[in-house]
What does this fold into?
Amino acid sequence: MIYLASNSPRRRELLQQIHVHFEPLLFRGPGRNDHDIAEDVLPGEDAVTYVQRVANAKATGGIQRMRWRELPSRLLLAADTTLELDGEIIGKPDDGEHAVAILQRLSGRVHRVLTAVVVSDGLRFETRLSTSDVRFRPLSEDEIRYYVATGEADDKAGAYGIQGRAALFIEEIRGSYTGIMGLPLFETGALLQEFGYSL
Ligand SMILES: Cc1cn([C@H]2C[C@H](O)[C@@H](COP(=O)(O)OP(=O)(O)OP(=O)(O)O)O2)c(=O)[nH]c1=O
It folds into this structure.
């Protein structure tokens, strides 16, 4: 049994897919992300550095709470997903209009999705990065607005979910489907095995 330091329902589904038994370590508290981890981009920070820093911060936050519960020997897993386009980091939309603006930028272009996954036993923190290139076909204003109205853009990096209706927008991916969805299972499995977890 591992701890999953995540509120993301996608990450839970994906871990279940590879039969990893986990207990969610839920983040509580105010804010868009329901945890105290600063998700602001630091000046000059690139997407690779950013996504790894945030995933490690989530893992560290989780480990601190595990110690408090006096269970330091269990493994803990955390992850972070972000998008990059034109050297710019694109996170979750603030509201519906922001979601529309993000999807208009992605329309007809290739963007990069980065997911960093971290496993820790409280002493060692190991990180793996999954990088995928995603090509969107050109989208009309109407279909973007319809998509955003379905609510599927909410709370997702890049204002879309490949696992939902946005599959209709995606012409091609190069990389990892599960990485785009929020937890790259190949890298996750390899990391867990590195810590002696048998799969
Ligand atoms: C690009 C893309 C993102 N997403 C989601 C996965 C993540 O939940 C979210 C990215 O936000 P994250 O900040 O990585 O994760 P989160 O806040 O949802 O969860 P937590 O920090 O508690 O682990 O976007 C999809 O579900 N499908 C997609 O195709």
